[in-house]
Amino acid sequence: MLRTIDVVPYDPAWPAEFQRIRDTVLAVLDGLCIGVEHVGSTSVPGLAAKPIIDLDVVISTRLLFPAVRDALHSIGYQHRGNLEIPGREAFLQPPETYPHHLYVCSVDTPNLHDHLILRDMLRSRPDLRDRYAAIKREMAQLHPHDIDAYIDGKSALIDEIMSIGRSAATYEDFQPAGAWQTRSEQHGDQG
Asked: What's the total number of domains in the chain?
């Protein structure tokens, strides 16, 4: 079956969908994770996106991963491996749940920090958010059935946004637990 890349206007229901998924995940991960971050385009108010929630489950050490994997499996998630991105473990969502991608990352994984920097830059800079929305819509129109071309078409702008974000990042942006969770909670979706 040929999948179509569908970029839709921002839906204000996305933060609530994230919270429902996060609450379900946290119920089985009690004490195993630092937190669950809402990342990706659905986490940015006003940003057009594919209607799929992205979540990063943050753990303090990779040594906790087997217990996290087993807990997620108990509620229907299927481990898919790292999908060629070191330090990030992907999971297939349970059946009959809102479309989402769930990843488990240790707190020191560069991929996690990149997700947070990109999210926070797009949240704080409407000019970058709007440019990103435009390129997403353009790439979806040009490559409606080619996810690799869609992603490649966005990469130059993502690199530019990440460069701005990394140069503006502070020490607090890379700290686990307290400082990190406080920063996330400022965004109103608890993640």
From this structure: 1
